[in-house]
Write a structure and sequence with these properties.
The complex is a heterodimer of chains A (546) and B (346). Chain A has 24 helices and two strands. With 546 residues, chain A is mainly alpha-helical. Chain A has one domain: MetI-like fold, CATH 1.10.3720.10. In chain A, strands 1-2 form a two-stranded parallel ribbon. The longest helix of chain A is centred in the middle third of the chain and has 34 residues. Chain B has 14 helices and ten strands. In chain B, helix 2 links the parallel strand 1 and strand 2. In chain B, 44% of the residues lie in helices and 16% in strands. By secondary structure, chain B is α/β, with parallel strands linked by helices. Classes of the chains: A mainly alpha (546), B alpha/beta (346). At the A-B interface, helix 13, helix 18, helix 22 and helix 23 of A face helix 1, strand 2, helix 3, helix 8 and helix 14 of B.
Amino acid sequence: MSAAPPRAAILARLGPARWHAPAWLMAALVLLPVTVIALSWTNAQTEIWQHLIETQLGRLLKNTLVLMLGVGIGTVVLGVSLAWFTATCEFPGRRWFDWALMLPLAIPTYVVAFVALGLLGFSGPLQTQWRQWFGAGAWFPDIRSAGGVILVMTLVLYPYVYMLARSAFVAQGRGLMDASRLLGAGPLASFFRVALPMARPAIVAGTALALMESLADFGAVAIFNYDTFTTAIYKSWFGFFNLQAAAQLASLLLLFVALALYAEQRARGSGRIHQQAQRNREAYRLRGWRALLVSVYCGCVVLLAFVVPLLQLLWWVVEQRAAGFDARYAALIGHTFTLAGLAALITVVMAVLVAFGQRLLGRRRSALSVRLAGLGYALPGSVLAVGILLAFAFIDRQLINPLRDVFGLAPTQWLVGSLGALVLAYVIRFFSVAMGPVQSGLERIKPNFQEAAQTLGASQLRVLRRIYLPLLTPGLLTAMLLVLVDVMKEMPATLLLRPFGWDTLAVRVYEMTSEGEWQRAALPALTLVLLSIPPVIIMVRKSRRR
Amino acid sequence: MNNVFKLFLPAAAAALLAACSDTGDGPESGAEPAQQPVVTVYSSRKEHLIKPLFDRYSEDTGVEVRYITDAAGPLLARLQAEGETTPADMLMTVDAGNLWQASQQGALQPVESAALDASIPQHLRAADNTWVSLSVRARTIVYSTERVDPQQLSTYEELAGDQWQGRLCLRTSKKVYNQSLVATMINTLGEARTEEIVSGWVDNLATAPYPNDTTTMEAIVAGQCDVAIVNTYYFGRLKKQQPELPLALFWPNQGDRGVHINVSGAGITRHAKQPQEAIKLLEWLAGPQAQGKFAELNKEYPANPAIDPSAEVASWGEFKADDINVEAAGRLQAAAVKLMDRANYR
């Protein structure tokens, strides 16, 4: 009892400034690996740069831009349209599509890539049949092309846009849409001029995640042998054994992402859109051919992005007679859930604190720290993992071990190889994944709730707990789910930083796929997908429109 | 308030540090000699290929073997970052280039062992004794038995000839196995000649390079191309699944340097905490008890010439292997990558 008043007094004296702390803490964490990576510039690697520029950098940049453009357009069109239909319309199967459309998130990208190549490639069943019908020389679209990679990535990544846009549309209700229609705008015009701009922060946040993921991806592009900027990073590291050149390339990637995010925020301007909690949530009831069309559209996406890859995984498991299934699976599942749950919880709590602080302090005053904190997702996983490892090893060497020495303890690895380090790595990597949904959810809440509560004497923490958290629920659940599933699938940091014995399902998947044993990887991959389904369903149940 | 903090912080830090050192391992455990030794391995060879052997070793000797698996690059980076406090006693990896690189970066220590010298031939060991090979795989030519007469095949170089125009499939140049193949060609044939050959391969490609050896072979089966270059164990795996596939191996360059081989191997880390135990494990892995199983698990050839390959591997036939020291692959890897980039081999 006696400790409480002074603590509260100190906090009170600090005033709103204390809300800087969460953002700067996150920024500091993210800056650890980013600094390590940026330090690579202290040593010029002219030879490799010259080689890259002479032989392939131009082609890689072009490929990367094409990929970003394609995935950007694809995920926005797919994600927004699906979100609009499931959030605001009524058609056969809607309740089911509502959550089923999120499931592709659980399928690792490489699975979809490999399935697409297996089914549509030259030696796949479709092309084989095609040649039998039309002769050996018959034209067939080449799946191993820019179009193929874009198709696969769009199918895997659209859920980011879908989930965020969906919670935005659910929160919008239809009050403003009705007003727009009453004022004489048609349904399409109302959608593009009212509903879409209001959901813009959510759509942008989702698209940014999808684009960052496709920029940093190495799995799918490797399967398609489609060289992107990431290819140059990996080539410098694994081909030339030059981690420094790889880090330099990665830091350029990071700079590019930071600038793009900054430009978007500038372009959005300072206008804020807030809305009342909507009472009128009545759905647009689709009938006849329209309803059918929408059902078929949703069905096709679920089929291509989830059912077909899932069936392929199932088929492989059956073919292999579940080889490799042993008692250790219980431990694998336990580790996967423990790590993902812990990381998701911490990441989302951090995201809420940072986003709330940003709101209290105003965007300008917290802009830099918040922007820094979100950069972890833009780096290729392996590069970030090594950056974190190097930073943690440095802390062990320069900070922990001298301190241990003072107390007469022998030097050891305190941070590297500990469970805490791995969870921290996840938080650093996936912070922006949680930040997107939380931030865009927060932006839709009118500030006058808070003003009213504060006028009535409520503390800021109480406001956060009683006003914001309940209103934020859909965004929070989206954030939790995204981080949870992302951590479950994460490979590079898990591989590099896990403590002895802490193998997860993703580790098992890696072991099999790294030597091309796709069939044997099916069992852990399928387990991963099945484990992700319950959280998806729970999330949708909790955030469903009433 | 401030004073309380000053008193409390160091105490808390000490408690925390002490608590964490319990989960830590290595240096402190030296104080209790009665404890069962634990050998720690960082391995880029996959768990299912090493665990059966480690289990047997533990059964036989009572020595526990712990391991972490990851790709060679990250493991090496971790080993370097950890420096003196690393828990790793042994680094195990595939490809001579990776082993050479680990040795070059000073991550491994030389080991004088008569047992290793007796088990593993010299061209499969590091000149400075920092690592030894534990298994051998050949990277050779595979062809369609329906459309190719093996009489037409002779050498890797000859795959650049006009008769293979539009009939060749290759795996991506980003895979280290192809980098090692080209590196040893540079060593034997010189850079200019090798570049000619690689450019010839690229001209002969039926389609863009595939991501792995298995899809490359499936392209031959589907009729997209007629010949390819693959590692023997991928061929073995595919044949085991579908024995009737019209594919066969061809051993090239039998008149001159022999078939290109690569290895998997291991070395003792520079800052090993249990170097003696780790050397014992390495000797055991190179010895007669483990070599047969070590190779068989991945359909490879034992590095120890006293041990015969499994019946399945032996059924592919005998061949003359290139006995250039596999270290050349590491030394020339960067040159090989650049050459392949120049030749537009993707």
